[in-house]
Design a protein that fits this description.
The complex is a heterodimer of chains A (about 400) and B (about 400). Chain A is an alpha/beta fold and about 400 residues long. Chain A folds into two domains: about 190 residues, Glycogen Phosphorylase B (Rossmann fold), CATH 3.40.50; about 180 residues, Glycogen Phosphorylase B (Rossmann fold), CATH 3.40.50.2000. Chain A is built from 16 helices and 13 strands. Chain A has a seven-stranded parallel β-sheet with strand order 3-2-1-4-5-6-7, with helices on both faces. In chain A, strands 10-9-8-11-12-13 form a six-stranded parallel β-sheet, sandwiched between helices. Chain A is globular, with a radius of gyration of 22 Å. With about 400 residues, chain B is of the alpha/beta class. Chain B has three domains: about 220 residues, 3-Layer(aba) Sandwich (Rossmann fold); about 30 residues; about 80 residues. Chain B is about 50% helix and about 10% strand. Chain B contains 16 helices and seven strands. In chain B, strands 3-2-1-4-5-7-6 form a seven-stranded mixed β-sheet, with helices on both faces. In chain B, a hairpin with a 5-residue loop joins strand 6 and strand 7. Classes of the chains: A alpha/beta (about 400), B alpha/beta (about 400).
């Protein structure tokens, strides 16, 4: 009896890697194949087993899927196992981004790359959410690489917004201001400083009428300090809102209250916040780097360079032109159709079929409906339409 | 927007962004844009066309704002320079990280033979204790060897740390490369005759042209006036502001870091100046290698330089005193170009022979490198200063 088990260093609720792994496990279960999690650290409170317990539970026909997004002990463990291994590569940020801020973090990123290479010989297939990540797998020596975009549940984006946050964002003194939003950890590769510079250019060129919300957990105090000092130096301390850690409800408030989503990030393996912004009907302006162009697709504005004047001018155009916003909203909807589970579950099925064929495992009935695809179809049809109408 | 010109990020940060430099991301972009329009509804196609139209309008508006000097490159450069000063100089937490890792390693390096014997199953705890007694002789022996090894390893790491700390203390952190020298020949404004002769030489050239260290834009303006597809780079923002207001295409970038980002065989003409006078020999050779790579077959390299007399003149004291190198003679440049398989090498001089331009055509055959240390060239090309 075939089983496909997932190994993941840290399983969290609400993070991209964890959500994608859960969505994969759910689909595998729906196909009638057992699928459990083995972790190094379980932060879900669901009582998943430690990966070292797997040998006691191993059965013939097992296939082991490793979700790689950071360095861990698990690759060495998997490399020693006889079972076929599949690697789902969520991306590793190049170590050079951290060297200045945290040597240990940069060492761990390098180790992650080494672990990827270690598993390349062992893995029968590598799966990655973008062609950019597929390139990393190919460069590491994976024999076969399949692209399966991140599978998300749109229902996760539908939570109620937070009343207190809604009220704060609608404060009278903020009336007349438009809001730029970026969601992502405060880390150097996300280049939040470029957004602050763009905001400064906007104020100089188009007036003092924008607030920039930078929503994300800080990782390196010295990076956050540099962002603070830059805002003070540019006299933008009242115009840049650092929001370090939000609940899902508060996050929903920010998406709903913002005018546009703007990204200057230099390195992304997928960039889920872009998809979330599209879901909330936010026009997206994003710097075309690494996997961002693939994720954004036709759904928003791609900028080829981060000239603050160009970024500010785009933002001003979006804010002031209802016709442009309307077109961008239409494109956001079209893009969401392309990346929703309705489109991505068949890609996952194809990857699973290939894995089962390679391992001579019996094939399940892939015609079995995907509850996630059905649910997302309903959500996109109802919520998105309403959301877009509200912004239109 | 893209005219099939060098696929290099337009921004003038001087920051090296490898993901953007290669064909890799460009390929993905092409793939994304090619697939984006397939199978889309008429409404979506109309929206895509509308956004593309707005993009052109925005590019024109940005160019107009630049030309009006409303947000000049010097302001952008000042903000970026200020931001650089806010970043930690080296590895902000390196010492703390090392101490923490060292402490963790020290803690786990010792193997404890006191194996836990507790068990929730009845009787198993006693069995484990008995087993532990029986294999204690073996565990002791293995653990002793491992503990010997690890304690010596820890000691060795401690010694290495102390030695590195001594070296770090001696290291002079002054970054001479940050001294912003003005290239002697960064412009040929004073040598209009020579600039005009160069423009005439390049009259029949096709393709995109780059003037590296364009200075006050004497050559750049001449070529642009001829309707050539030309852009310039420089790091002196006072020049960039002026040139942008004259609607010349310029970027704030250093020569080597910019060339590193330019795609292979994407330029028709490369004019090198400034760096050819004052850079180190390895940097000058690296610039030549880049020229070989970025110029397409039959493309033209022009090296604008000055004689030693000009370089040593009192008004150029900064360059002559602080530069790691001194200018090559035209004969040396010509010989280097030939050895890198450039052909039709010729030299133009000004009336006083103080300034000269070496012109050569790129021929894509394998260069003869045996007389140069390849590793030196490679290390020059990977100079970490390029990534600043």
């Amino acid at each position: 009896m075939t089983a496909i088990h997932h190994f993941i260093p840290t399983l969290l609720k609400g993070d991209g890697t964890g959500n994608n792994a859960r969505a994969m496990a759910q689909r595998i279960n729906e196909l009638g194949i057992d699928s459990d999690f083995f972790v190094q650290e379980d932060k879900t409170g669901e009582g998943h087993r430690h990966y070292s317990e797997y040998p006691k539970l191993a059965k013939p026909g097992d296939i082991l899927v490793y979700h790689l997004a950071t360095a861990s002990e698990i690759p060495a463990f998997l490399a020693s196992r006889a079972e076929p291994v599949v690697v789902v590569y969520q991306n590793l940020t190049p170590a050079r981004y951290f060297e200045r801020y945290d040597t240990l973090a940069s060492v761990l990123q390098r180790r992650g790359k080494e672990e990827l290479a270690l598993l390349a010989d062992k893995a029968i297939v590598g799966i990655a959410p973008s062609s950019f990540n597929c390139g990393d797998l190919e460069a590491s020596g994976f024999r076969e690489v399949i692209k399966v975009p991140i599978i998300f549940d749109p229902a996760d984006f539908m939570g109620r917004s937070d009343d207190a946050a809604d009220a704060a964002l609608a404060r009278p003194e903020r009336r007349g201001f438009s809001s730029w939003l970026f969601v992502g950890r405060l880390v150097p590769n996300k280049a939040q400083e470029r957004l602050i510079m763009a905001l400064h250019a906007h104020r100089e060129l188009y007036g003092d009428n924008v607030i920039l919300h930078l929503v994300g957990r800080p990782s390196y105090p010295s990076y956050v300090d540099s962002l603070y000092e830059l805002t003070v130096r540019l006299r933008l301390q009242d115009r840049v809102n650092f929001v370090m850690g939000v609940t899902p409800a508060e996050l929903a408030s920010f998406y709903r209250a913002s005018t546009l989503f703007i990204s200057a990030s230099e390195h992304e393996g997928f960039c889920m916040p872009i998809v979330e912004a599209l879901f909330h009907g936010l026009p997206v302006v994003a710097y075309d780097a690494t996997a961002v162009p693939e994720t954004l697709g036709i759904g928003g504005v791609h900028i080829k360079d981060r000239d603050p004047v160009a970024m500010a001018t785009w933002a001003e155009a979006i804010t002031s032109s209802a016709a442009l916003r309307k077109r961008l909203l239409g494109l956001a909807k079209a893009r969401l159709d392309e990346v929703s589970p309705v489109a991505t579950i068949p890609l996952l099925d194809a990857a699973l079929k290939r894995i089962l064929e390679i391992t001579d495992s019996p094939l399940p009935n892939f015609a079995a409906p995907s509850s996630l695809a059905i649910r997302s179809q309903a959500v996109l049809a109802s919520h998105l339409g309403a959301s877009l109408r509200a912004r239109d | 927007m893209d005219k099939g010109h060098p696929k290099e990020s337009l921004e003038g940060t001087g920051k090296f962004e490898p993901e953007l430099s290669g064909a890799r991301v460009q390929g993905y972009l092409a793939e994304a844009s090619a697939s984006s329009e397939e199978g889309q509804s008429d409404e979506t196609l109309e929206a895509i066309a509308y956004v593309a139209r707005v993009q052109r309008e925005i590019e024109a508006e940005v160019a107009a704002l630049r030309a009006e000097g409303k947000y000049p490159p010097s302001l952008v450069a000042r903000i970026k320079r200020y931001y650089q000063t806010l970043l930690p100089p080296g590895s902000a937490t390196a010492l703390r990280d090392f101490d923490e890792a060292y402490r963790l390693l020290d803690r786990v390096a010792y193997i404890d033979i006191d194996v836990p014997t507790q068990s929730q199953k009845p009787g198993v705890s006693q069995i484990k204790r008995v087993a532990r007694i029986f294999i204690a002789w073996y565990l002791n022996y293995v653990a002793q060897q491992f503990n010997n090894f690890s304690s010596n390893l820890i000691r060795l790491i401690g010694i290495i740390d102390a030695r590195i700390a001594r070296l770090e203390a001696k290291f002079d952190e002054t970054d001479f490369s940050a001294v912003d020298l003005i290239g002697v020949t960064a412009s040929l404004s004073a040598q209009r005759e020579l600039a005009a002769a160069l423009a005439t030489e390049l009259a029949d050239n096709k393709g995109r042209m780059l003037v590296a260290e364009c200075g006050d834009g004497a050559i750049l303006a001449l070529l642009a006036d001829q309707g050539r597809d030309v852009y310039g780079i420089d790091t002196r923002v006072e020049y960039l502001d002026q040139l942008e207001m004259r609607r010349l295409e310029v970027r704030n970038s250093k020569t080597l870091s910019h060339l590193a980002k330019v795609e292979n065989s994407s330029l028709g003409t490369l004019v090198l100046s400034g760096i050819v006078d004052r850079a180190s020999i390895s940097d000058r050779v690296a610039a030549l290698f880049h020229a070989k790579r970025v110029l397409y077959q039959g493309g033209t390299l022009a090296i604008v330089s000055s004689g030693l007399e000009t370089f040593m003149a009192p008004e150029n004291h900064l360059e002559s005193d602080l530069s790691p190198g001194r200018p090559f003679t035209p004969q040396t440049w010509a010989e280097l170009a030939r050895r890198l398989s450039f052909s039709h090498v010729r030299t133009l001089f000004d009336a006083n022979s103080n300034h000269f331009v070496v012109i050569a055509n790129n021929t894509k055959i394998e260069a003869r490198l045996s007389w140069l240390s390849e590793s030196a060239i490679i290390s020059a090309a990977r100079d970490p200063r390029l990534e600043k």
